[in-house]
Design goal:
The protein is an all-alpha fold and about 300 residues long. Helices cover about 75% and strands about 0% of the residues. It has 13 helices and no strands. It has helices at about 10-45, 50-70, 75, 80-105, 110-120, 120-130, 140-155, 165-185, 195-215, 225-255, 255-260, 260-275, 285-305. Helix 4 runs antiparallel to helix 8. The protein is globular.
């Protein structure tokens, strides 16, 4: 214990700061691991009695409004027209094309399988990089081939869980491609410098596109069950606001190699939660396909980092 006039050694301050930073990093990682891994289960419960497009659309619109309101008018509106257009484009690809299609598909696809299929996002990003004539290492290409081999193991006739149709499963792969493309082009479009402002506007625009799509599709909004209502609220507050804030903090304060680990942790969390809470079947083929995809994504993420 130091006296009032004593000074603290710089190394002690550095050690304390390093420890605090490490604790904060792992706390935010745990948030992203568990929350984003659990959102697939929450979506599965929500769509039982809430139309998927309206449910996902209202989820992101409310989350976007709450985030922008929290940031304050001056900070939230400090964006140019070009930046708003960029937010609309990326938000449509991420929130609407990515999460929205997953929500539609989870009417028929178990939450664990949905999470494993959406883990194909890093595979799609490599494909877009190659299409843009970016130099892709041979080991990364092999990882992509291995990852899609795992997808084939899960989707081939006779391998899918009983009663799971092929089309909604392919829709989730399309959602992964949309999320991957949105992530890929976000490097080259004029998004706002403020990450939270960007996230708020992206969620708002993506949610609006989903809500309009729900109206065009003729979705009917009835009285949701208590379970579905709670799942919707969880997706708004915890799934969107808390997890996105944690993810934004990690991007600014942690190595990308560590942040990117969520891509292969989330599917494992989702499979476990789906089996324990919803009683989703996890057969040998599911375990094999999941292992192949997760291992391939892990290799790609580590190589890319």
């Amino acid at each position: 214990m130091t006296s009032a006039g004593a000074s603290v050694h710089p190394s002690s301050r550095d050690a304390a700061g390093s420890l605090a930073g490490g604790v904060a990093t792992w706390a935010n990682l745990a948030s992203v691991y568990l929350i984003w891994g659990s959102t697939y289960l929450a979506i599965r419960v929500m769509v039982r009695t809430i139309p998927p497009l309206y449910g996902a659309g209202s989820r992101f619109m409310v989350a976007g409004v709450l985030m922008l309101a929290f940031l304050g008018r001056q900070r939230a509106l400090r964006v140019s027209r070009r930046e708003l257009l960029a937010c609309a484009l990326v938000g449509t690809l991420l929130a609407a094309g990515g999460n929205g299609l997953v929500t539609v598909a989870e009417q028929d696809v178990p939450s664990g399988l949905a999470a494993v299929l959406i883990a194909s996002v890093p595979l799609w990003i490599v494909i877009f990089r190659a299409a843009a004539r970016d130099r892709v290492p041979t080991t990364t290409v092999l990882g992509v081939l291995g990852g899609f081999a795992g997808v084939a193991i899960l989707l081939l006739p006779g391998n899918r869980p009983a009663g799971v149709p092929l089309l909604p499963s392919l829709l989730i792969l399309g959602a992964g491609a949309s999320w991957g493309f949105g992530s890929f082009i976000s490097r080259s479009v004029p998004l706002p410098r403020d990450g939270l402002v960007t996230t708020g506007w992206q969620m708002l625009f993506g949610g609006f596109v989903l809500a309009v799509s729900g109206a065009i599709a003729g979705e009917h909004i009835g009285m949701p069950s208590g379970e579905s209502a709670w799942a919707w609220a969880y997706l708004v507050v915890v799934g969107a606001l808390v997890a996105y804030t944690s993810y934004t903090w990690l991007l600014r304060n942690a190595p990308i190699s560590k942040v990117s680990t969520y891509a292969y942790v989330n599917p494992v969390v989702a499979v476990i939660l789906g089996a324990l809470i919803l009683g989703e079947s996890v057969g040998a083929v599911t375990v094999l396909g999941t292992a192949v995809i997760v291992a391939s994504v892990a290799a790609i993420v580590r190589r890319g980092s």
